[in-house]
Each structure stands twice: as structure tokens, then as C-alpha cells.
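User: Structure with PPS, C-alpha cells only please.
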Amino acid sequence: MDDVFKLGPDYYRSPGEWTYKGYVLGGYNRKDIFECPDFAEYRVDDCFVVSYPKSGTTWTLELTQLIMNDGDPTFTESAHHNDRIPFLEYKYDEFPQWEGLGILKKLKSPRLIKSHLPVSLFPKSALYKGCKVIYVARNPKDVVVSYYHFYKTTVEFGEYGGDFHDFLKQFMNGKVHYGDWFTYMLEWWKYIADNDILFLKYEDMKKDPRLATVKIANYLNRNLSDEVIDKITEYCSFKKMKKHVTNENNEGNYMRKGVIGDWKKHFTVAENEAFEKIYNERMEGSGLKFDW
Ligand code: PPS
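Assistant:
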């Protein structure tokens, strides 16, 4: 690791943090999801939206839920997104109402599920069953910026009080929830190449949000009119979503800025150079490119 990202032994650890097979996980990640992957009784028409945190998960979930409901926002507007979209591996004493499996079991099919699990920890039964999986990726410089702001404002992360530069070191050393971005991304990327998974990039969604809606609808075999596609896309614009997704507890941290390139306001020149070097080494040969 480049000196720029050298991490001391007293780096930040969030409450209840633990490690499983090399992946750092949060106190809100249930431990039994890996040992007993079948207990959610996955259904063939379940649809997962999977991503490394801060990559556009919430946006993709909202689009997908509206598509599943043919553009009707009644269900979307009925509750905060945490109450209507189960976060599979979430279980936290302070917010028992958001236990992912509890919500999942109450839902009617087809069910929409959020997960940040790396592919090696993802429930195999869901993958073998042929459940739909939509994977959304984002350029990691913007991911780490978004993650830093989320760590600062989120109870489950202990409301991190350090600065961005220390947080970047932790990120580059894989010492944040869900671990090393490069390992996570490359594992999923390999799996995506051989399986029927819809792969989306945050930056493409920003540049052509309507196309993202069309891609998700096609993947889910939903035949929607142009008018409904337009309506869903517009409903999920950053401005509109900020109004209907945030609540008092989470004001600002799910819907912060919603732009490409905010990293330019956070990285120093030296950090950017060191990041580029590591990025090129780690991603070499993957064929995966991002807009920065
Ligand atoms: S989480 O907590 O991991 O589920 O977060 P996630 O939803 O993956 O990522 C949050 C970032 O996505 C931005 N966002 C959007 N950008 C553009 N358009 C829409 N509709 C949208 N919805 C969410 C959100 O603002 C976070 O990025 P940052 O850079 O922090 O603004």
C-alpha cells in the first residue's frame, strides 16, 4: 500500500463491527444470514438489487419498485423505503422494525430485496433458484465520498467523527463495512459475466435515466408504455426522490448530492494520484471502466 494510504493501528471501528471471511461488517449485519442461507425461502420471482454501499442502491430500488407496480406510486408513498423494501442482512436492536427478514416474510410476491452482500456471502439458494439480480456499480472515488458522509451521519456507523482523509485511508485498506471495494467489485463482476444479472452503472443512469428505467423494465419482462416509463423516470429524479425517500432520522444521508465527480472537492492531488495507481493495478484486465 502506498504511503499516502498507510493506516495506523488505531483506525476507526464502528459499534459492533466484526469481520467475516475478510469482509468488515457492521453491528447491524446479522451473523446467521451466512450460516443458514435458506431460511428466507427465496422465491423464483424475487428480485434483488445488490451493490457496494453508496452506489445508487436506493435509486435503483425505487425505480424497480415502481416498475413492478406498473408506475403506480401508491405503495411507494405508503411508507418510508426501509419499511417497504427489506434490507436482507439488516438486524439492529435500535431499529427492530427494519429487520430485513421480518419485512421480507410479510411481503407478497414478487418481492423486491436490498442487499450489499459480496457474492461469496450472498445466499446461494437465491442465485441457484434464478432470482432476478440487478447490480449497480459506481466509480469508487464518489463511493468513498458518499460513504464518508454516510458514516458521519448514521447511528449504525457510530456517527464517525474523523476527517475525510483518514476515512479514505480506511476505505483503501478495506476497513469499512462490506470491505475492500476492489475485491467486492471484481468478485461480483466475474459472477455477472456468467449469469443473467442486469448490470447498471450510476454514471450511466445519471446521463440517461430513462434508459435505466427501460433496461430494468425489460429485464423484469414488464411491458410498460412510453408514458409510464417517463413517469417512473421523473418520479425517481434526485429532486423528487429527496422529497419522498428521506425522513427525520435519515434527512440528507440517503439523498445527499446525487452528482458525478464530487470526489474532486475531497481528494488531494497526492491522494488522487495514489488512488489512480492502485485502481489501475487492481482493475487491470477486468475491462471495467467508470466515468469519473
Ligand atoms: S446505501 O445507503 O448504500 O443504500 O446508499 P445508495 O442508495 O447506494 O447511494 C446513495 C447515493 O446515491 C445518491 N442518489 C441519487 N443520485 C442521483 N439520482 C437519484 N435519484 C439518487 N438517489 C440517490 C445519493 O445522493 C447518494 O450519493 P451522494 O454522492 O452521497 O449524494
